[in-house]
Amino acid sequence: MRKGFLAIGAVGVLALGSLTACGDDSGDQAGGGSGKTPKIGVILPDSSSSVRWESADRRFLKEAFDAAGVLSDIQNAQGDKNAFQTIADQMITNGVTVLMIVNLDSGTGKAVLDKAKSQGVATIDYDRLTLGGSAQYYVSFDNVAVGKLQGEGLVKCLTDAKVEKPAIAYLNGSPTDNNATLFKEGYDSVLKPKFDSGEYTKAADDSVPDWDNTQAATIFEQQLTKTGGKIDGVLSANDGLGNAAISVLKKNNLNGKVPVTGQDADPQALQNILAGDQCMTVYKAVKKEADAAAELAIALAKGERKETGQTVRDPEGNRDVPAVLLTPAAIYKENVKDVIADGYVTKEQVCTGDYAKLCTDAGIS
Ligand code: BGC
To answer: Transcription regulation: is it a keyword of this entry (predicted)?
Structure first.
């Protein structure tokens, strides 16, 4: 059953078209009448900074394109900026009508977008805004709201645990990801007033290059050492970084005592939450993001213009980019079940081994 919080995420974009032909990952096909069948290229960033890209985004985008009967070619740059550019070049050569990218940084993202534009290929920034870029649309979540939920979540968990004057460590996302800046803006809006008033202290504030989970563990280990173990709460920008912090806390017998935040509702994070090792995560209904982006891509491919009713300011390019921004939701132990009910992850992925009992206790049936 659909839960209330999921409805909030809906935006006023149209339902996907009702074409019946199936999409195909390979080759070009001649379309009827007015030339080629639209073909959409998508470049995902990696498969290690978050499991979402391969397990959710690829799946939901492919489903949306197939349902609309358009061809698609979805590839993953695996964190390699050169590969990213090569994939884009190949897609353009192979005749994509629209290119959708999740940039690895704004510099290479901009180069790809500008090249596509010069070849008459329409572009969409998917999830991450390319600063100074030239995409026709930006489709994402309200990323400042994501950060606010993380800040509020950490406050809630520290308050519930009655921790006084907590010392907070930040594990921020990649400095090259504009989303990381927005997440921080969100959690700072909640936590900075508490640092300023002396209610909380900030023990550490580090960014994790490329959202690299392995580096995150090393960075968090250094934060713990530097503070003599005096960290009472970890504001981690996503689940991968959070899990890295939890692995270090486990080694120090501190897991469950130090609340850790996250983002993405990864199966592993949901298990960490059920076990009491993670305070919360932020669920982003990626299906809605994929559907909205696919719908805009298909419209662009047909040469149509759709109104999104909203824009986002690109401070580097000094332009307002037409945008769809969806609403995120906070997930605690009590509503882990909603993420499963929404079909984002399965009960089988979360309720394995020792987690089976924790799932039953949390009302996951
Ligand atoms: C996305 C997050 C993801 C992170 C690392 C961000 O841009 O919005 O969902 O966890 O990148 O891949």
So the answer is: no
